Amino acid sequence: MTTITHAIAQERRLVTEIPGPRSQALQARKTAAVSNGVGVTLPIYVVRAGGGVLIDADGNSLIDMGSGIAVTTVGNANPDVVAAVQSQVADFTHTCFMVTPYAGYVEVCEALNRLTPGDHEKRSALFNSGAEAVENAVKIARAFTKRAAVVVMEHGYHGRTNLTMGMTAKNMPYKQSFGPFAPEIYRVPASYPYRDRGLKGPEMAEIATTRIEREIGADNVAAIIIEPIQGEGGFIVPDPGYFAAMADFARAHGIVFVADEIQSGFCRTGDWFASEYEGVVPDLITTAKGIADGMPLAAVTGRAEMMDAVHAGGLGGTYGGNPVACAAALAAIDWMERNDAPALAREIESIMIPRLREMALQFPAIGDVRGRGAMIAIELVKPGTIEPDAALAATLNRYCHQHGVVTLTTGTHGNIFRFLPPLTIPRPLLEEALGVLEQAFESAAS
Ligand code: PLZ
Fold first, then answer.
1. What are the pLDDT digits (tens) for 200-209?
2. What angle do CA 262, 263, 264 make, to 5 degrees?
3. What is the pTM of this model?
């Protein structure tokens, strides 16, 4: 990997049990002060982070295999981002771009228009969160097409606001007791190669598009919204041809094709955007997470005629494209370009996939190894079947946490063990994390 210097020692070092006494005390305060609705995966309270590690309040140093859910792609507190944020925050913190604008917002939009797939004329608009970007993509598609229906996928995830909850597939924990949801949202089959019983990408697309024609009517559809690699649904990489066939169908019927690249974008999968893998040029693309190294920023980027179909004043919000978040994004994007971040992601894939395939030979509970770049997962099943084993995912997760590796699970069935390391993670730490996972399997088997 390219040599990256780190301010924090890049090591796994446990000096207390996990969580330690200071984290436990903070967790007790959390229980007393924070809504029970806000869950915590691993209650170690972080005081510093960078490279590939998180340091907690007890002085433990844990390997970060989650990047705060695919956010700190350029490394937590990346020094270039820190410098840009410090400089901006000293100049001004906020004006509201809709009241008195500033250059940083325009520069982020220019960068998005340049970096997203396709060389057609584009425009962008900035928001605060991924869910907000998805909502705005729907607003834009409806304004452009003058149609109402929105098509989403089985296993899809798009956020926790009312519209995006309705667009999200999984009930618990995202939707339970929070309805009613917005109307005109329709769900069709996604391509899930491990579970599609041999059906190929184009065949799955045929099933999905036939459903759209029969049950909704293609002429009523404003937008088809797909994650090129599904994130919360289980790191599902569609079978070749599915994603492109869905884009072709949209184009043939005047439907706006939206790629939700909030988790897969910004070099995470070994390309700048995962849509590029199949050469698909989405009409609109939603981004967030990796765009600004953790500062809240999200965007919709797309065809000028679609983005400009909205009346002036129809898009916005008090904080969208905050100047500090924009400064962070410009520094993060610059870092990605200078360090060939897609190549860093591909290097992580080349280390992880062979090692996980080896483990799959040894541990029959690993039913599938998949993913691209630094977005990699294993699907856990009851050996000899494809029956999901969520309990094993939870057991392995606990083992990794207790041994100083921050790991995450995902998936509609909760049985996917996923890896989203920062691209700055030193190679030996990555290998050490995989070693801990191997021990977790051994410990679960004994
Ligand atoms: N679209 C594809 O992955 C966020 C959600 C974690 P926000 N994924 C992590 C959780 O439990 O809330 C996500 C995504 C895709 C949209 C979103 C929503 O982005 O920034 O969380 O609103």
1. 999 999 999 9
2. 100
3. 0.98
